[in-house]
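User: Please go through the entry that follows and flag anything odd:
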Amino acid sequence: MGRRRGLIARSMALALAATLLLGAPGLAAPVTTQVYGDLIPPKVVSAMAMSDTIVDVTFDEAVDTTTIVAGNFAIAGLTVSGATPNRNGSGARLATSAQASQSYTVVVTGVKDMAGNTVDPAANSATFTGLAGDPMVSLSPSSISVGEGGSFSVELRVSHVGDLYGVSADIQFDPAILQVTSYAQSSHKLGTVAVNQFDNAAGTLSYAETKTGAVAGISVPGEETIATLYFKALARPGGTLNVTRFQIADSTGAAVPGGSAGATVSVTQGFQVTGTAQAQGLTDQSNIRVFLSGQGGVVQETKTAAHGSFSFSSVLGGDYRVLASEAGFLTAGSAQFTLNSGNPAQNVALQLLAGDVNSDNVIDIFDIVLIARAYNQPAGVNLTLDLNRDGTIELLDIVLAAINYGKSFSI
């Protein structure tokens, strides 16, 4: 009985298999599916000059790297001397003869995809603009003249890069002559400042900026400012800002070969302030005290010559005022001015008004009373009340103070 059941089960299995292979009676024949390979040819998507002798060509899919050879690429007006696959396998980097700043078209033939399809003849070309000149990281201006103690700035620039994704520069200087005054200011061409540091003791500055995300870099056929760097000149005769190391990166993470150029800084004698300080009613304008005042107080002091002239030399860059003082006269002061490489010299003219005999920076009734009380007395050694310096305290001195009644000075 058991053997019979086994034979029945085997017969049923064979019948089921026959039905699946041949189809059951009265049913349609089984469906046959045939799988075909990739029949779509690759297309050229874009071309971009990476330097004046490098062009990147991009396809819409991965290609057979053995077909990336110079003979499969032609550019009218240029010679293609070499071709190498890019990192992701869907493009080629071409070595060309020197480009000009003009439009070129690359035509591709013979390049195949991984299935053996040859590039689509209807989509086998792309146009790009050539770059004239090697990729460069440079400082501008390349020659700077600044007064001793003066501040100046230079721009970190990149030029002739077709796909600028990131750039870095290390700069060296003599810390005894030059100093960094603040962190570099980005021009936001790439977006993310990765490194912004300096060491004035060591004489170094480092800056790096990059784009972020899977995006293309910016095209720089000419020149682009990446950041502004700020310095101060401490001493003569000057020095150099040397770009000791740099890197340019494209959007694939590959280094773009190029060159660098630093800047020369000539430090001249410090800034100068000249002018006149004259006291009202005096014939001899000598020996009036003149002060050059900066943010930290008085930085230099001098006295006027016979006609009231004065000068300050070797002044460091910065914000200043000039003040003048004489006994019996209201203190005079200039407006604030800035000395820097754009304004290396300043001329100031001051007039001191007669009458402030009690030195409280205002000419009022108290001053007039003090002069009147000494009426018709010889001045002697006390010149404060003898405003016109004629040796006698008299009506003319009172009148000088009265003319300026109500005038005041505030530092």
The two ends are 127 Å apart (CA to CA). Residues 195 and 222 are 25 Å apart (CA to CA).
